[in-house]
Amino acid sequence: MLILELNGISVAFGGLQALDGVSFAVSPGTVQAVIGPNGAGKTTLFNLITGFLAPQSGKVVFQGDEIQGRPPHQVARLGIARTFQLVQLFDHMTLLENVMVGRHRLSKAGLLAGALRLPWTKHEEQSIRERALEELAFVGLSDRADQPAAALPLGLKRLLEIARALAAEPQLLLLDEPASGLDAVETERLQEMILALRERGLTILLVEHDMGLTMEVADRIAVLNYGQLIATGTPREVQRNPEVIAAYLGTDWQT
Amino acid sequence: MNSRKLLNPWTLFGAAVLLAAGVLDNDYYLTLINFIGIHTLLVVGLNLLMGYGGQISLGHAAFFGLGSYTSAILTATYGINPWLALIAGLVVCGVTAFLIGVPALKLRGYYLAMATLGFGIIIYIVFTEAQTWTGGPSGLAGIPNLSVFGFKLDTPKRLYLLIWPVLGVILAISANLVDSRTGRALRALHEGENAAQSLGVDTSRLKLLIFIWSALYASLAGSFYAHTLNFIAPASFGFMFSIKLVTMVVLGGMASIWGSLLGAAVLTVLPEMLTVFHDYEVIIFGAILMVVMIFLPRGLVRGIMDLWAFRRYKKEGKIIA
User: In A, which residues are within 8 Å of B176 by CB distance?
Assistant: First the structure.
């Protein structure tokens, strides 16, 4: 069974056709990359899957449910988490609190229960905190747990954003250019992390311009150009596709 | 219990409240302190909405007035038990906040400010014009005192012993809330609405919830106010008072529970101490708002803590950015 299926997705902003009849599918437990030049519609695609945009036509099917047009928080509750191309952290909250917000969909203390600090909410808080600390440890930020998120350099902010998304225990994780702004060492670490997450059984959809990273981690790659899907396949297949080379990769990637 | 546990703000607060109850016997000061308490209730509620949730309300005085008038009319005109009237006030404010909040909270920034401003003005006009119920501009007199187990709260001291313990509970509840799942979602909503949504936070619902919640604080404050003064008039619930509340939040510090107490205290006491305030109130409040926003954007409490930390870092020779 497929975890995510896009079926003839079209989105237009005024006269601009941002996505034009895009269809592809993602198998569970794989890393699917989406590449293409700037303005090809990659981020639009992410916003569409996560409910920030609704398609003019087409279907988004997640684990058998049609989810297109549902609001973002409902999509998130189904088990889809994401990071943002421009990192969106809660700057004045600590690293730990940022990741704790990630547990929102899996916990249930409401306003009154929290305000009155009912006994059962203490257990819940405890487990939220523990899970959040685990995810912080996974991305290597445990020692900064009590610092405000704003104090981090960009590379670490991206890692924190991933930790926050992971705290939601998603089935599908969308990473929007996670390597941009990272140095070589950090990119290396990110690569290991993505592979480790796939080992855990997580399905990852990745938008990335760093081709070294993409070719290393992706099981399959979809290539967008001007809102149209021009190729899908394994990294090797995509690298050899003349249309992809012409539109995006250039000759450097010819093997 | 070790000294660190004893020296937390809550025990200090409790000790100060008890101490003041024992020491103070001057009705004027006690009344002033009671007003600080009532204002703090309002400011904490507004701070949860504005400071923590990032949703501005320029019409908060309207909820204060609705709670106040519900208590006043039901007790003075219809002779209903003040506690039942207080609960009725909470219901009125809660329902009103819901009805106003559903459309208004779809707006952001300046637009939300304008919508709440308009709401405040409309409610003010209702207080002035619905003379058969409210007594119009000349106000409503003969509001009875609250009593607890047949014990009449008819002196400032007795009211003090109601208002401040209740305030203590409300402050504790608010601090709990801020540090809970919903509180984190609220702060997350303020700092990044999209990111909060992407983690499953239903931000529209949360905005509405906190709007209603803060209206309930205002209603409670309004009921206390009516039973403290035994007389109310529309002038106390106008636009200027909404602005004062916002100034108190900003002065004390956005997203600060203790800052709310400080902001309310300073801006309740100052006008009493300095009679010039009466003539230039609008100008002075505006000036305070501007100066704080420019020089202490995080308010008095955090601003002072920042300065202190800065001095300490400097002493230790650490560089801070």
Answer: 114-117
B22 in a domain, yes or no? yes
**In whole angstroms, what is the distance from residue A137 CA to residue B206 CA?**
30
For residue A1, give both structure tokens.
């069974």
E runs forming strands in chain B: 140-141, 147-148, 151-152, 231-232
Express each pLDDT in B76-115 by its tens digit. 999 999 999 999 999 999 999 999 999 999 998 889 999 9
DSSP string, A144-176: GTTSBGGGS-HHHHHHHHHHHHHHT--SEEEEE
Residue A196 located in a structural domain: yes
B187 reaches A (C-beta below 8 A):
yes
Cβ contacts of B139 within 8 Å, gap of 6 or more: B231, B232, B233, B234
Contact state of A111 with B210 under an 8 Å Cβ cutoff: yes
Report the amino acid identity of residue B250: V
Domain hosting A22: range is 1-79+170-255
Amino acid type, B192: G
Contact present, B120 and B242 (Cβ < 8 Å): yes
Q: Is residue A88 part of a domain?
A: no
Helix axis angle, B156-178 relative to B203-229, nearest 10°?
170
Tell me if A73 and B191 make a contact (CB, 8 A cut-off).
no
Q: What angle do CA B123, B163, B261 make, to 5 degrees?
A: 80
Handedness of CA B58, A150, A210, A171 (dihedral sign): negative
CB B40 within 8 A of CB B260: yes
Q: Is B196 within 8 Å of A105 when comparing Cβ atoms?
A: no
Quick one: DSSP state of residue B180?
S
Which ipTM did the prediction report? 0.94
Boundary of a domain, candidates A113, A144, A168:
A168
pTM of the model: 0.93
Contact A149, A89 (CB under 8 A): yes
